[in-house]
Amino acid sequence: MSDKSLICKHTLGRRTRFAAVLLIALLALPVWAGAQSWTWKTETVDTKAAKFISLAADQEGNLHVSYVTDPEEMRYGFRPVGSSRWFTMKVDRGLSNTTLRLDREGNPHICYIAYGELRYAWLDGSKWIIQQVAPNSGTISYNCAMGIAPDGTPHLAWYHERLPDNTNYIRLRYAVLKDGQWLVRTLDQDEGTGKWSTIQVDEQGHPHIVYTAWDRHQARYAVSDGTAWTMTPIGRTGLGTREAPRGMGNSMVLDEKGNPNVSYFDELTLKYARRDNGAWVIHNVDTISESAWSDFSGFRSTLLLDNQGNPHIAYEDAGALKHAYWDGEKWRVQLIAAGGTTPFRYSSFTKDSTGALYLAYQDGVDRSLRVAIGRPGTAQSTAAQKKDNE
Questions:
Q1: Residue 37 burial by CB count (10 A; 0-12/13-18/19+): exposed, middle or buried?
Q2: Which residue in 45, 149, 187, 239 has the fewest CB atoms around it within 10 Å?
Q3: Full-prediction pTM beyond 0.90?
């Protein structure tokens, strides 16, 4: 049986097939609250050279990943809970960023960029349905972000680089799928907005977006109440030692109260910000290497909250892949993978309902797609420790 058939078979029957396996796993696992260190093991997803990776776990513990390989394939991988075998398949041709999100039924949705077009694909249980978003609108590049509402409605945000006449547009755009039609708008009229962006949708179906405002040297947070959008800066504004924006490589999750939690880079500082009662509380997490400025693709972070609500950030530091986490008192930093002959890891972070962490990345030597699986331990961590200083 082909990998495509197996993927569809697992998708259609996942709720009954894996329920017993998941229950056994949950009963067997220890309580992980308060763990002070994390141990990791690694498995290979695909031996093809992989980049622009996006990883997610569904409610049953199945893993889903999207990525781009050479030559020019946008691929999808699936690993059933309780198994170490990955099934992979080609979805479309693609060249750039992919973002994968899951709906409440565990169906994967992917936005990606192919030849200057923004495309959206979703698996309905038996086949992939692919659409172009905002056709004939010009060139789309660099970034697309996606969030899925509780009712399954996809929301997209992207960096619109050029108009059809090839003049620069360079603004953040946004779309939501309503009654089979994409409703598209320019979200921020300032030039240079949206080169990095991330989007989450809350329980009321309202989208939240974090993005860069390049020309204003800001990280911005936008939220809709269903009628109007409100945009506010995150942290300080204005120039630092470089003419650089805040908010590069950003990632966002919403906590149980619906408050945004954000990771991002401010020049060479990895930061974590949490909005509480309308104000931002900001931590300095780590300082990365000066060589990160050789290519903006090196600014990449993924944020998640563990089962106790503590933040974990996967990020890249001049080719090295790191894991930073708040243990209740301080930030701790672990090295997951050292730098190699390739400069970027294209990492993506997720967790399952048991609290296990999964970190997908490109191997630094052979460029294969790997996933590191983290579980908390009880021994004192030997990783570097970082105190909050902001």
A1: middle
A2: 239
A3: no
* Number of other residues whose CB lies within 10 A of the CB of residue 175: 22
What does the block give as tokens for 28? 């067997």
Placement of tokens 């996967």 in the chain: 314
Give the pair of three-digit tokens for residue 120: 């959206």
pLDDT for residue 1 is more than 70: no
Categorize the per-residue pLDDT at 29 as very low, low, confident or very high, splitting at 50, 70 and 90. Answer: very low
Q: What percent of the chain has pLDDT over 90?
A: 72
Give Rg (Cα) of the chain: 20
How far apart are alpha carbons 80 and 17 in whole angstroms?
A: 10
Could you give the CA distance from residue 291 to residue 50 in angstroms, rounded to a whole number?
23
Most confident of 78-82, 139-143, 238-242, 264-268: 78-82
